Structures are given as structure tokens and as C-alpha cells.
Amino acid sequence: MKRLASIVTLVTIFVMLVSLFGVAPAQADGKLRVFVQFAPGQKANVEKALNGAGAEFHYAFDKLDTFVVSVPEAALKGLSRNPNVVMIEEDVLRYPISIMPSTAAEASAGDQVVPYGIDLVQARDVWDTDRDGTVDTGAPTGAGIKICIIDSGFYTEHEDLAGVDVDGYDGNLPWDQDGGGHGTHVAGTIVAMNNALGVVGVTPGTVSIYEVRVFGDDGTWAYSSTLVDAANRCAAAGAKIISMSLGGSKSSRTERTAFDSLYSQGILPIAAAGNEGTTALSYPAGYTSVVSVAAIDSTK
Questions:
Q1: Which residues are paired to 147 by β-bridges?
Q2: Which end of the chain is more exposed for a tag (fewer CB within 10 A), N or C?
Q3: Could you tell me the strand order of the sheet in which 56-61 lies?
């Protein structure tokens, strides 16, 4: 049986990267990937200048007055002097946050188990107060709420996710595939069914899930701009909560502005702070408009 609780993705996040800013790697053609913010009403002029500089366009975020492009390093100085360019900022990297290993009880075969985190966040105090294993009559369950997960995909054939209302957007790969298991584990923590299999989720099988895939099966990194685009797709799909088990050590003004905007629209972004037990900040979890969630063990 494939079990959510036993899926552990090992993600190497300390990678030697060399670039202008010491974070994002230069591409094979020597170009550097950056956000270019233009002055209001100057999109066409800056687009022309970027084309003249040999830029490769990735995104155009009109609400942020920003292009995301890869440009030759030699062109950056000239672009920074363009009076229509407000800011040029590195497009930093974002990684999946490694999943905490399962406890022995959760990893064992047998009936459904309740991960310790479910009761630590008092989830069953909401929908199973008498602990009889069934949802209490009339209890709030999250039905009618859409949660968007930005991750590595969603394995739709998983037996503990059967019947979940799920849709998604194909990023670099199809959203309904997940060879690495990271995104499926995150989804299961949220919505695994209350049945005789595997584990039970915080809100078992009741919320709707919208999956936006940004990571491959091997846990490779994505860019900050990829995350901004994914979050915008979450909002367009009608999600009220965005779940991100991902992050990076470098902040981004453009990314922060994007999440501030989503929060002002009534959308709640939630991101992982990491499992390392350090005081180091992770982003987007480090922004004031994003709820930061860190891990504790079963003894708190």
C-alpha cells in the first residue's frame, strides 16, 4: 500500500550557485534572470529596450509593472540607467522544504493512524470531539473552501486521497502526477480521507484542492517569479488559502509585493519556515503578509 505517512522527500537545499548576486545560477547562454520593474505607463518602452538588449522574456506581471527576463550581464548597467526602469532585482531561487520523517507508529502497517500534528493543532477538537473516529454531526469541516497547493504535483490515484475534489494547473510538468511525492504528502496532511487507510488529514476529504506544479520529481528548484506566477494562478482559481512547503534564504521585494497584494485581496498565504531548528529566516514565510509555519516534534 502506498502510504502518505511514509513518503519522505530528501531535498538538497545547500547548492553551490554562482551568479551576479551569488544566488541564481547563470544560464548556459550566460544570461542572468531578473525582475525588471518599469514606471507606470512605460511598459512598451521598457519592453523595446529589453528586446534591444537581447532579453528572453519569461513573465509579464502587469499588476506589478514588472517583466521577468534573462539578459546578458553586460546589458544590466545600461538597463539600470534607463529612466523608465524603476528597479532591477535578481530572480532568486525557491526549493521544496524537506518533509519530516514519519514516526514509527505512523510508518507501521495496519489501520489508519492519526499523526501527532493533527491533535497538536487541535483539528479533531473541531470535527471529532468525542474521538469516535467519525465527523461529528454539524461540525465545521472546511467544505466549500478551496486551498491551493504550490508544490510538485498531486498523485490522483493515491488511495487515501480518493474522492478529493481536486483540479490544478500544469506548470513545468502535469499537476496530476507526482513522482517525488512531496506535493502529495502536503496534500495528504491537509485532506487525507478519514478511512481505514494511511493517515487522516487536518480537514479530511472536505476542502477542495487546486494544485499548481512548480517542482519536478527530483525536487529541483524553481524561481521566485515562478512562485509569483503560481500564487496568481491560485487566486485566479478562487483559492482563499495558499499552501507553500517551500522557501529560500533570500528575500525579494517583488515577491513580497505580490504576496502583500494577495493578502489585501483576502487570500491567506501560508509558507514553511523549515525543519532545521534554527533562527534563519525563509522566504516567502518571512514576509509579514505570509503565515510562517515551523515544525515541532511529538514532544513539542
A1: 209, 241
A2: C
A3: 56-61, 66-72, 31-38, 85-90
Distance CA 200, CA 185 (A): 12
Kindly report the number of other CB atoms within 10 A of residue 59's CB atom. Answer: 18
123-154 in b/e form (b: 16+ CB < 10 A) is: bbebbbeeeeeebeeeeebbeeebbbbbbbbb
Residues facing residue 33 across a β-bridge: 70
Q: Which three cell numbers stand for residue 49?
A: 529596450
Residue bearing the bigger pLDDT, 7 or 238 = 238
Contacts for 60 with CB less than 8 Å, ≥ 6 apart: 43, 66, 67, 68
Alpha-carbon dihedral of residues 256, 261, 263, 269, nearest 10 degrees? Answer: -50
3-state secondary structure of 181: coil
Q: What is the rounded distance in angstroms from the CA atom of residue 161 to the CA atom of residue 187?
A: 8
Cell numbers at 82, concatenated: 534607463
3-class DSSP assignment, residue 267: coil
Grid cell locating 206 = 472536505
- pLDDT tens-digit series, residues 133-170: 999 999 998 889 999 999 999 999 999 999 999 999 99
Place of cell 517583488: 254
Query: Quick one: average pLDDT of 200-223?
Result: 93
